[in-house]
Automatic annotation (TrEMBL):
Pfam families: Hen1_L, Methyltransf_12
Biological processes, Gene Ontology terms: regulatory ncRNA-mediated gene silencing; RNA methylation
Catalyzed reactions per annotation: small RNA 3'-end nucleotide + S-adenosyl-L-methionine = small RNA 3'-end 2'-O-methylnucleotide + S-adenosyl-L-homocysteine + H(+)
Keywords carried by this UniProt record: Magnesium, Metal-binding, Methyltransferase, RNA-binding, RNA-mediated gene silencing, S-adenosyl-L-methionine, Transferase
Residue span, Hen1 N-terminal domain: 1-239
InterPro entries with a match to the protein in the record: 3'-RNA_MeTfrase_Hen1_bac (IPR024026), Hen1 (IPR026610), Hen1_N (IPR024740), Hen1_N_sf (IPR038546), Methyltransf_12 (IPR013217), SAM-dependent_MTases_sf (IPR029063)
Protein name as annotated: Small RNA 2'-O-methyltransferase
Molecular function GO labels: metal ion binding; RNA binding; small RNA 2'-O-methyltransferase activity
Domain Methyltransferase type: 282-382
Superkingdom of the organism of origin: Bacteria
Length: 460
């Protein structure tokens, strides 16, 4: 089975740096089910193509399987050696693991940027036909060409097979493209060659970071990727915290608050800002701009600014807010800029209110004092709103092991959060009060906890 990735970004051979695979070499990578090869059919400054060829060993595959099969000969009579499937997805994830993380010290700016890409898979099982390929790849910014492959060219009356030749073109960050393929290859095939454990949910959330939560067909993707219904329910619950909305199965109890928790968080923060009567707001760690989008319709907010350490997140925010379509007067009211909350920056100062919504838990605890200085001492807004998960409530999420998101560095209990907020308020001259957001459990509290800091009168 074969997959090729091409770019016309110049110099195109930078693709080798992004993939961490040298264009002048043919490199083998042993898998439990065969050998994956990486090579470059073309490598010029104008165009470069990297190929991933997976040579499946049917005997190795049979010995490595933990699942039962539909019939005895299916272990030996199948398409796994010839058509892209979860096997190719696994090989891609392992061979290009560093590229999927988005790390490239020698070309980091390029790794963080969308580049022109073409991806071709000659034979891909696609249950549901070419329309499913368009549904899952189209919303991610790809131009999709999925050509059905006939059962037999000599007998047109037999119709098409369940395989398509998939060709994707688009301007996408390479790490995003690889993570999307890792998830969507088994989704289109709707079959996995290996046993699924609880860690599959974390793998899905990690690979789907930044795109899966708000995908219009996220329920389809989750259900196909996670064959076990209990894992699919857990994944939908986890994604509900990251998305604007969630599609729930009416026949199943997903144990989620309605409306989704993410929406409740935004509504709660918006309510605090409105009650405080502030006019200028900076969203620190704005991500894809969901809160900013809610602030824009209100004329009370005369200055709206979003900042994030991720250039890719700011690109998503600009698209969400449609900054390119706004009038000059509107764009004077709204601004986005890149910055790190652990480094003092004069652009953070001069606002009535600052919001840190689901931000602090993504920092290493050792970096929290730096954030405290930057926000509460250097920037010193009149109001600071902080939200973070309540780790006690995690017991309500069926099957959750560890933290709610793989990128979280910590999650606090209500007591731990209260201790931190009180010491910050005392050190920097603020008053603080707390609220819960979401469904209230008598013993565990709410899923999200919020602290509202108000600068004490007379303290500059």
């Amino acid at each position: 089975m074969l997959l090729t990735v091409s770019t016309t970004h110049q110099p195109a051979t930078d693709l080798g740096y992004l993939l961490h695979k040298h264009p002048d070499r043919v490199q083998p990578f042993e898998q439990s089910f065969g050998t994956a090869w990486v090579f470059y059919p073309e490598a010029t400054d104008e165009r470069c193509t990297a190929a991933l060829l997976l040579d499946v060993d049917p005997v190795q595959l049979t010995r490595s399987r933990k699942q039962t099969v539909d019939f005895s000969l299916a272990q030996y009579v199948n398409d796994r050696s010839y058509a892209a499937s979860s096997l190719l997805g696994v090989a891609l994830a392992r061979v290009f693991s560093t590229a999927r993380s988005g790390r490239c010290p020698s070309r980091q700016e390029l790794a963080d940027s969308p580049i022109p890409l073409e991806i071709t898979i000659p034979a891909l099982p696609c249950r549901g036909g070419a329309d499913v390929a368009h549904r899952v790849f189209g919303p991610l910014g790809w131009t999709v060409q999925a050509d059905p492959i006939p059962l037999d060219d000599r007998f047109s009356e037999w119709g098409d097979s369940r395989y398509v030749r998939l060709h994707l073109t688009g301007t996408v960050r390479l790490a995003d493209a690889l993570n999307q393929l890792h998830v969507l290859l088994p989704v289109l095939d709707e079959s996995k060659h290996y046993w699924q454990g609880p860690d599959e949910v974390d793998k899905l959330i990690r690979s789907g970071s930044g795109w899966l939560a708000n995908h219009p067909d996220s329920a389809l993707i989750v259900d196909r990727y996670l064959a076990r219904r209990e894992f699919a329910r857990l994944a939908r619950a986890r994604l509900a915290e990251l998305s604007d909305s969630v599609t729930e199965d009416e026949d199943e109890d997903v144990h989620l608050p309605a409306p989704p928790l993410n929406q409740l968080r935004h509504d709660a923060v918006l309510g605090v800002l409105t009650e405080a009567g502030v006019h200028s707001v900076i969203d620190l760690g704005c991500g894809s701009g969901q809160l900013l989008q809610k602030l824009i319709p209100s004329a009370k907010f005369t200055r709206i600014v979003g900042s994030d350490v991720s250039a890719r997140a700011l690109q998503h925010a600009a698209r969400r807010l449609r900054l390119d379509r706004m009038s000059e007067r509107q764009t004077e009211r709204i601004q986005l800029f890149q910055g790190s909350l652990t480094y003092e920056d004069e652009r953070y100062a001069g606002y009535d209110a600052a919001v840190l919504m689901e931000v602090i838990e993504h920092l290493n605890p050792a970096r929290l004092p730096a954030l405290e200085h930057v926000v509460f001492e250097a920037a010193r807004p009149g109001v600071v709103v902080v939200t973070t998960p309540n780790s006690e409530y995690n017991d309500r999420y069926e099957g959750l092991v560890g933290m709610r998101h793989p990128d979280h560095r910590f999650e606090w209990t209500r007591r731990e959060f209260a201790e931190w907020t009180h010491q910050v308020a005392h050190r920097f001259g603020y008053l603080v009060h707390h609220r819960g957001i979401g469904d209230q459990d008598a013993a565990l509290g709410s899923p999200t906890q919020m602290a509202v800091f108000t600068r004490e009168a007379g303290v500059s």
